[in-house]
Structures are given as structure tokens and as C-alpha cells.
Amino acid sequence: MAPATGTVIPPRIVPAGRHVELPGRGTTFVREAEGPPGAPAVVLLHGLSATGGLNWVFAFEPLRRHYRVLAVDHRGHGHGMRTKRFRLADCADDVAALADVLGIERFVPVGYSMGGPIAQLTWHRHRDRVRGLVLCATSRNFRGNPREIGLWSLMPVVTAGIRTTPAPARRMLLSRVIERRVPNMPARDWVIDEMRGNDPAAVAEAAAALGRYSSHEWIGDIDVPTAVVVTERDGLVPASRQRKLAAAIPDARTFPVQGDHSVCVTAPDRFVPVLQRAVADVVSRSA
Prior knowledge:
Elements (H helix, E strand, L loop, with lengths): L16 E6 L3 E8 L7 E5 L6 H4 L4 H5 L3 E6 L14 H15 L5 E5 L2 H11 L7 E4 L9 H18 L3 H15 L6 H9 L3 H13 L13 E6 L7 H10 L4 E5 L5 H4 L1 H19 L1
């Protein structure tokens, strides 16, 4: 029987997700791919306006062969925790709290774009829990030139405007934008459902938080094995800035991949093998 209109058909390669209560914090959403018994844990942290499923859709199966793989939906994104105020530090604390609930003592945060600062903050705020870091398509800061400074400075105004818009109107506008931007493709209903879960106000606040973020004062203190996956053709986070991130972290190693900021989903055949090498390098050095 053909599925009814609007039926959500997630790709088979994406593990089913579940909601997990974080005591004193709220309810988060995690997708988990069980690896071999006793395998090291890696926690995948997605980028702005994405979800754990969308950002890492092609990485679950290859990584689960060697690791216990978890991917969270950050606050205000996808099926993640609802929030009245988005803070990157809260997302980092959510990761540590999730590890507590799941009985994971130490893990490797793997952050993509916005997930990079969240991974950095997870180490900064919970150093005893982090055995290594993998930072992809990301930076120490996101305000490198006048254009970016001007763009980020507008985000509080955008956020305030979205917050004052009635929720039904926000949802309707978001649905229209998503449906126009997502082409006909396999699992289109699932992709739309993932993106439709985003809270526009929280996403705008997340963008503003990125504009304010800087780890310059403490990034050089990172004392765990670190790999930086550099997206060489990135138009959003220039490769030069990604290399500066790597240079600022003692003994960090770079893993270049030929692709732009969306290479994780547009060219997984290039991205995933590099990601695998980066994770393997960090895990081997942290053993």
C-alpha cells in the first residue's frame, strides 16, 4: 500500500530517535547507533538550523562499526528541547547531562559548524568528560570581517521580531520556506519534517550567539587530542579561519576535505572517509 500523503519515511541509514529527560534541564532528543560492545562513545553535534539526523545522515553507519554513536538535536532545533533563550553553553551542558543519563563516563564530541563551539565549550566546562575533540567546518569565532560583524549585529533585532510574531504565523511561514527550498528527493517528507521542527526564534538566537562567540582566551589550553576537519572550499567559514583554529590548539591535526560548508550532505563520499580518519586519530591518541 502506498503511504498516505505527508507520511514521514526516514532514511534507513538514520537510527530512530528518542526523547531523553535530563534532570533539572528538560527533555532532549537523541539518535543512537550502537557500536561494538565497549566501543568508545562519540557525540555528534550539528550545525545551525540543521538537526542531528540531517547533519550526520551519512555518518551514522560508517561510524557505528567502531564507535557508540549519538547525535543530539540542540535546543530549538528539530525535535530538541524547547527554550525561551538559546545559549551555546546550555547546549554544551546538555551534552554532559545526556552522558550522565546514559552512563557514559568519557566521550568524543564531534562538532560541525555551530557544533564546533558547542564541542569546544563541552571541553571547557566538562574537561573530565572529554577524551578528545573533532571539529569540522568551524572556528574560534565567526566575526572576522565588517560584513559578518554587520550581519551578526542585526540578529538581536531579527530575534525580537520573530519572538513577537504569533506562533501559528511563524510555523506557517517556516513551512512555506522549507517546502520551497527542499526539492523532490528521496525521503523528502522526512527532511521537511526534520526542518519543520525548528523554532525560528531559537534558530535566530543561535545565530546571534554564534556572532558573540569567541574561544580565543582559552582555546590554547585544550589538552586532549584534537582533529580539525577543514572544508577547503567553504564560503561560510573560510578554510584559513579553520586552520587558525587548528594552529591555536596544541598538537591539533588537520584533515582537509575538498568541499564547501554543506559537503557533509552534498558529497558524503568525500566527507565521511575524512571524518572517519579524524575520529580514529583522536580515539587512538586518547587511548
